[in-house]
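**User:** You know discrete backbone vocabularies at least as well as I do. Would you mind producing a protein record, from residues through to fold? Write it directly below this note and I will take it from there.

**Assistant:**
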Amino acid sequence: MAEGEGKMATEESSSPDATKADGGKLVGGGGGGGVLANLIRNQQNKNFFESLFSKKKRVDDESVLFIPKPISFLSPIANSVVTRCSKILQIQTEELQQLFKTTLPDNFKQPSNYARNLLEFCSYQALNVVTANPEYLGDKDFRRFTYDMMLAWENPSAEIDSLITEAADKSSNKEVEGEDGWSLFSSSTTSMSVQVDEKQTVGSEAFARIAPACVVIADVITAHNLFDAMTSASEHRLHFLIYDKYLRMLEKVIKVVKNATGLQTTSSLQLLKDEIILEVDGTVPTQPVLQHIGMSAWPGRLTLTTHALYFESLGVGLYEKATRYDLKTELKQIIRPELTGPLGARVFDKAVMYKSTSTLEPVYMEFPEFKGNSRRDYWLDICLEILYAHKFIRKYNLEGIQQSEAIARAILGIFRFRAVREAFRVSSSKYKSLLCFNLAESLPEGDKILETLSRRLELLSSTTNEKACMKLPASLLSLRRFKIIVSNEQQQYEGDDQCIEPIGDVCVGEVNPLEMAVRQGKENIGREEAAQATVDQVKVEGIDMNLAVMKELLYPLIESFNRVQQLATWRDPWKSTVFAVLVSYGIVRGWIRYALPLLFVFVAVVMLVRKYVHKEKQIEALKITVPPNKNAVEQLLILQESIAQVETHIQTANVILLKLRALIFAALPQATDKICAVLALMAVILVLVPFKYFVVMGFIEAFTRETSMRQDSMDKWQRRMKEWWFRIPAAPVELIRLDDKKRK
């Protein structure tokens, strides 16, 4: 098979290069400039797009005569897809293959990946044309067509040459179907027209390569998470019925948002010119939204837009003026899940807390429901997505079309999340988010995803010198074609969508940098989750148990401190003297500065020895002597005693600070004179004597306190110091209590 493909490629590459493009390779999902784009424009008109999704299966005279030929080395399903792409593009399959050769580098034409890359090339270009009509999601043939692309991606090459030849011979003799049976997305040439088999399913990689070419269906950042959400109950294989249900629900969501966008002019909300309503909740009496501020709670309607949250309190039959909570401007906003309840009681975990510098106190939006908190989690995710999108825009200083594309990505992500939630009743977890900005915030090294995305957005341009070469980013263009985003620039595009080329994220034969960054983040997730699993295993309950574990872990440090303390008691004068002389000599010579580096080197050597010498040995489990069991009351008493000790230590520290404050402000004149004299003398000595000698003197003084020669004098000196310290008064303290003016 490889030899046949190589021979075929060699023979065709030797033919005259009559259609060679000037502009380099074509990328899927939108980089369809150059020769192919010109051919499509020259051979298509508005009537073609009007009939593209026509429910009547009518046949144009030119379409009947246009019979694409199958390609010998492709599998039946791949030939079915390519011939349908050929019909959509109105270009013969031979010309498509020649364009593929002339516009892409040689490394994409290796026998091992030639068939799959050719399939991607044809699929991406066909999708660019098909998605120009905003009604494509409602066409079942389109849904089958894109699903067939995924099936063909998994099996692009023919397995048996004889079967392919036989199928090609049959197809050349087969007559064209009649008027009632023709469809643009269904190949009418042969038995190559493969319909979706109920038993056939699609894998994750095929979905991630085809679906993001239509940005409404999937985002390259979250494509794998979307696939996992749809296939969680089908052994991670995508069935057509599931895929079809998802697209039908996605179309429904877009229509709902489009209708809400059309009613913005009659809405009581004072929206900005480019502000779009994305979600509304609280309109159904059985599912209210409660706003908690202080002790008050009031039902109302909550609206999320591309710029802010709006809450309209429910008055007597009417909604009052909306309160706006900004998500666009930098106000140090905090949005997180929170507990709430009646009269400020923290009982129900069903609320979202909003706090910013523009609010006097936190605002809680409660979403009551009988079971679970999925409603709250959904609103939390979509609010954070808009907040993170604007944070991303501010961080990378995006303006104009770059800013619009970032918001468009967030909007489409919310559409997909809403469609999956309503179709399959599933919600995304932290690392399985269907929202690209949420995912980037939660993934390890997610900042690299945003950095890669920002570099791509910096390359976008809204227009060029020639109108025929106008380009727009795919997400923004899709929303404009759906009439969800309408701007001043929209008027010049209306009726001329064929002249606009979308710039997408997927490229033929290449892995998108965004996808690579996501993969790296998910690899880090695996290591992080594995490490977290070990943490969960070693967690123990009870204060006494945790203290026992900590004592065993700190045993080397505790034992070292006990040894030094034993030397300081001078029970063995010979060892204590040697230790004091060596440490003092090291300090004077300056060797003490090498102590910490030597410790680091010692630890590193131990780790390397453990790695290479004892690499086959497992780490030994830490053996803990279990303390006597204590019931709940005894543990509470221990906790109370510990808290009392901490409170005592804090009180002692406060007394020391207040006495120092009294000394500084000369509350005791006699003590002030002595302290000033001592401080002046110490300043002179510090200037004249090197610091290392003070370190030696401090070490000898502390280390020799327990000797018999200094015991009596040391006790007397400590007694005098305590008596002097007790005579110093503490600075006064006045407690001021603020009035709690919470709303009732």
